[in-house]
Design brief:
mainly alpha, 2 strands
């Protein structure tokens, strides 16, 4: 069983983890049954996802402003990018 249960706090918009949910992987071809509580949680996630903007406009504005100001590409950011690429390749 994996501890993957998270809910989004209405006050902060952050995800919080109230406890474990049984997420055992079903065998191919077998039916998956959700408990009423798990189904309610899935419904809540789906409703929150529908309310999210397709594009994070605040992030796009900030990145555009940083690019225009010449502050987006820093040596630290490039180093982090290279490290992540190397991790993915290895």
């Amino acid at each position: 069983m994996k501890d993957v249960r998270e809910t989004m706090s209405a006050a902060t918009g952050e995800f919080v983890s109230p406890g474990p949910v049984n997420m055992d992987v079903p065998r191919p071809g077998s039916a998956t049954r959700l408990s009423g509580e798990d189904l309610a949680l899935l419904t809540q996630w789906a409703q929150k996802a529908c309310q999210l903007p397709a594009v994070r406009e605040d992030l796009v504005r900030r990145v555009k402003a940083e690019i225009a100001a010449g502050t987006y590409e820093t040596p630290e950011r490039l180093e982090m990018t290279v490290q992540r690429l190397m991790e993915d390749l290895l």
